[in-house]
């Protein structure tokens, strides 16, 4: 996953502080628990030293120490519970933070799905939303609690040791900084290695998914072996990145253990000299210090281990933050909610299909969400600003409309245009002239870079997504068919509960009844993910059945009859004609007979709308259009 300099510059947006700010009460509770944990740690050492002093030095009877042992067990139990409570709080912070990170990513990627689809591989995005977010867990569940504990408990132990014996306290004071210093040096390397690891993982995931989806094509073109080597190369790169992090981790562990061992050894040597040689220290004091010193260093060592994990997690969080920044969206804490599908008896609710929310027939570009920040949103977040029902079919007005995918990329300038209610519009032009982009802007699937689309006099960016999509159906050349029954796939055409009778009637109107009769289980036959088992014409008829069930006021087509046989095309054209009687229809047209039937033709060339009018008007006034028509006529007659 390549990161641009621009993304890195915008990364300083404070995503991590923002996430932690939402858990101030929990972090405060961890601090309070850490204070109690520090007191319990010192209390445990004091009681244990006292028990050893009484038994081995004062030769007291064990029976006389029952109260001390009971208190010691109680303190140990309290210490265990406090440590467990800190861990539980860290896990809750991690769970909520991951939920928020994943929600932000999904909202960002769904806000402008058509733009997102152009950027990178699908597998990489899936890996980012799943694996990378999961890797961020360590920062919140381990790093945060351990760092808080390490900032409080060692300080309490250091104060206690200074009170007991100043030279031992000075040894701790001067040796302890080596641990955080070493952690900082290792942490920088770990963070860089972590970022490299997640880039390799995203690249490997994307390559693997692309290869899996295009396996048949790779076989047919003899590229399977080459792609196999590419997957192997990506896999080995990810392995190497992971092993580099493990190498740093092992080095980190060895260095920390060495520092801790040397620190404890120096203190033990100094105490031995005071106790045995100079004989100016009591056994109880020396033993108590020896109990506290390992606790002091172990806490710092655990902090070092957590620090390594935290730096790895920071690499994951940075990747997420860069993705959010590169999409130009500053998320808020609100998230949209989608309806759930329910199948009860003969009634089917079609707003969700196998876990995938769908609002129209556009290829899996369904849950658009509301984009925020410095980018123009495709829809308003509020549901209050709705277009009145009586306005449908609506007048659609383009006002100085333009769109660009980015610097040095395709730019569309559609200018201004008024589409009257109920008109049949054909958008024509050469491939790459901007026809599909214009249709996506009208559909609300892309936010305009400048200008606006107005529906019944109201800006589309100010209308609610649900209100607009309730009246729109968009059928592409390759409508998406979900894994499920034929009936369920038809039912996603509407957000209301529909009966089996309504589904059957919609299928008959779309010419799908003959297919259903041939299937083993009729409308309850399972079709594969992506429509496996259905021909192109059958997929188109299923998409039209969705439209018949929905009865939209605005129909958008991306020439759905391209590549179909004449019989299937005739069935589809009849169904489209019936749907068009009470709707505004906008079609990307390639065939002459479709162009002739339109009330108005929009001619696109190199991203600009250069002509608008009837077929006869454009033949007389627009030479590029006349040339296109002539080429088609020759193609038909030859």
UniProtKB/TrEMBL annotation:
Keyword Glycoprotein in annotation: no
Source organism superkingdom: Bacteria
Low complexity bias spans: 347-356
SMART domains listed in its UniProt record: AAA
Transmembrane feature ranges: 61-82, 147-164, 170-188, 245-269
Start and end residues of each stretch annotated as Disordered: 331-356
Natural source organism: Saccharibacillus kuerlensis
Subcellular location: Cell membrane
UniProt-recorded name of the protein: Thiol reductant ABC exporter subunit CydD
